Amino acid sequence: MVGNLLTEYDKTITSPILVKNIKSNSQRLIQSEKKYWKRFFRNFSDWLYQNKYYDNYVWSIAKILKTFFNYLIKDKCWSIGKYHLQFIVPNHSLVPIVLEPNQLKFLITNNEFRLSLSEKLKRTNDIFIFGCTAGLRFSDLMWKIRPP
């Protein structure tokens, strides 16, 4: 998936994404690469947000990119620098919102409320109730309903 996103992003920029194997100790080259990857990550993140991807997904992509760069350095012995360490991945712990039993019961049993909803909202309500009772996150639930 990350490869597909990078391919899509690459089509929108003027120059291709390049990972250089740095064999010299030129400070100018090192600084240039550092700026390149900082700019790449900022622009790629902005592109992801513009394409309706949200924080958790963008952060998981950043983690995958960091892992890929670590793989190139450690397993493939590429000398590419440690610029990927500047790919900032916030460590947020999201607090789930929990419904009280009477709130969930209202959504399930109140016919007057259900009749006031449009067809689209009725489907949304059904998916929400199923997710609450099954204990699934929205992203997991939607993947089960509509695989990528």
Report what the structure shows.
- This protein is an all-alpha fold.
- The longest helix is centred in the first third of the chain and has 24 residues.
- The chain starts with a helix and ends with a helix.
- The model has no long low-confidence stretch (mean pLDDT 84).
What are the key terms here?
148 residues, 63% helix, 0% strand, mainly alpha
Overall SS class: mainly alpha
What's the overall average pLDDT, rounded? Answer: 84
Uncertain ranges: none
List the total number of helices.
7
Percent range for helical residues? Answer: 55-70%
Strand fraction: under 5%
Indicate the radius of gyration in whole angstroms. 22 Å
Largest sheet: none
Helix and strand layout, with pairings?
Blueprint: H1 2-12, H2 27-50, H3 55-74, H4 101-109, H5 111-115, H6 119-134, H7 138-145
Summarize this entry quickly.
The protein is mainly α. The protein contains seven helices and no strands. The longest helix has 24 residues, at about 25-50.
